Amino acid sequence: MRVRRRRFNDVPDPAGNGLLDRRVFLKGGAGALTAGAFMAFASSDAKAAPGEAPAGMKVPGAPLSLYGSPATFEREVTRTLIRSQPGTTGAGASRTPLEALEGIITPSGLHFERHHNGVPTIDPAQHQLLVHGMVARPLIFTVAALSRYPMESRIHFLECSGNSAVMFGTTPPAQTCGQTHGLVSCSEWTGVPLRLLLAEAGVDPRADWILAEGADAAAMSRSVPMAKAMDDALLALYQNGERLRPENGYPVRLFLPGYEGNMSVKWLRRIKVTDTPTMTKDETSKYTDLQADGKSLMFTYPMEVKSVITRPAPGLKMTGPGLYELSGIAWSGRGKIRRVEVSADGGQTWAETALSAPVLAYALTRFRIAWKWNGAPTVLKSRATDDAGRVQPTRDEFIAQNGANAIYHYHAIQAWRVESNGEVKNVYA
Amino acid sequence: MSTRKAFAVATCVIVLGGCAGAATRETSNLGRAATPAEIAGWDISIAPDGRGLPQGAGTAAQGALVYAQKCQACHGEKGVGGPNDRLAGGQGTLASKTPVRTVGSYWPYATTVFDYVRRAMPFLQPLSMTDSEVYAVTAYLLNLNGIIGEQDVMNAETLPKVRMPNRDNFILVQPWKPRGQ
Fold first, then answer.
1. B175 within a domain of the structure (yes/no)
2. CA dist., res. A206 & res. A285, Å (int)
3. Inter-chain contact B30–A149, Cβ cutoff 8 Å?
4. 3-class SS at A1?
5. Chain A, 88-117: which have a CB under 8 Å from a chain B CB?
6. What ipTM did this prediction achieve?
7. Is the pLDDT confidence value at B11 over 60?
8. Domains identified in chain B, total number
9. B82-110 b/e with 16+ CB inside 10 Å = b?
10. Could you give the CA distance from residue B83 to residue B86 in angstroms, rounded to a whole number?
């Protein structure tokens, strides 16, 4: 059978208010419309005279360099909303500017941070990791020793369980997308499966847990079920091809795919094999989810299915009616993303988006769909489903279920209101 | 040759060579044995049943002094009103619209207070206090919250027996039960 190449105008709109078939850009029909653009920064007035070669073609360019950095014109693209506990500089968080990024890999320098007492300076030649507790052979590993073990590389998101916590509040925050949802990032992590070291130490079969502890001034510590430690836990040494950044746990961190971020203990100095959880401060006082009835959920490890449209989003402005590509990220701590739907009419009708390869378990997944904006105000939403069949709830459903004081694991559908002047705002709709 | 193959081949060689132990797979074995003395210095975590608690002791009365010198500037007089986390009060608020989570109203285990304060406080000089100072200031926080008396001695025996008021209000999502309960 001959497949007829359909023209742009033949493609039925899958949902209301201008959402176009997800293959519309691939079919080459998009040229029929004027594509709109997003503005993140003002364009400069000084332009070369028409026909004149740009200045950079008339002189030799900048010299070679030892370590590259982003274009100077991109200097506004930084981590955002740095907040630390009163009177401190390193007990808080900085966030990834999601609306400025594309694809699924977060540049290492823009990976979000969450520390409890600053970033320690650690000489890898001095650093040691102790594996002890309920083991036959307590062992000490240097970084050089760890670097000789067989390694695995995996692309995984890391999300702080407090990401988007501001959305529990009664009024929608007047913040950029990254300021609200940027405690999630995604990297390629390379390192040694923890199970190799545990096997060498010889784990007592009665041991159901490990305690992981960092070499920072908070001696950050979390208990992890043995099943996870033996399954896919990684001792990460590399991030996006280079050694870990200091703020991501240099020289070695634990990495637990899909689990709430702080369990992936940075600056790892000690693994203690235990029969019970240790009940550390950051698994009792903090990182437990207080429900409306006064009870708290404890050990809520996997991050739930979630998505957010990053283009357009607060922090970017639409530049007039026309054709746009809506782009966003989806992820689930329970597996792969199966589907992301988008609505351009406040949730009345939904269209399935195209997922950009690769679609990986416990990784950010990029979704895209063409949208012909007619210039009228409207509300955009995205709704992700993971391969366990879990679907993002609405904010009302989520709060009804978890109360407004849980702080952690917020993952409801996000609504962005697009104003007729092109501004994009966070709304509860 | 792929890494996996290389390791598999190495395994055969070792098995044929009659390597000691029940190793069915080659391992890198690059860790060195940790001595008990090394482990003792390194191991600062306290289990909820008290395993790991060191010698030493203190009362709330003694802890009041430690608190005034080393904690009050950040956590406020009697644990309230400082720039950083509130450490006292809030009992009975958890099911309200404005819950106040403190050591007294929220924390399920008294051992966690000792473990955390010793490893992380005072914020600018963590790991600087003696174990008896940590027992004393832990006792002070528990007494501030009406959980123990002013002269109750906190040590490795008594601290794990302190029953925290909010202990039974945590729902374990992971199947785990404290042993012997």
1. no
2. 27
3. yes
4. coil
5. 88, 91, 116-117
6. 0.91
7. no
8. 1
9. bebbbbbbbbebbeeeebbbbbbbbbbbb
10. 8
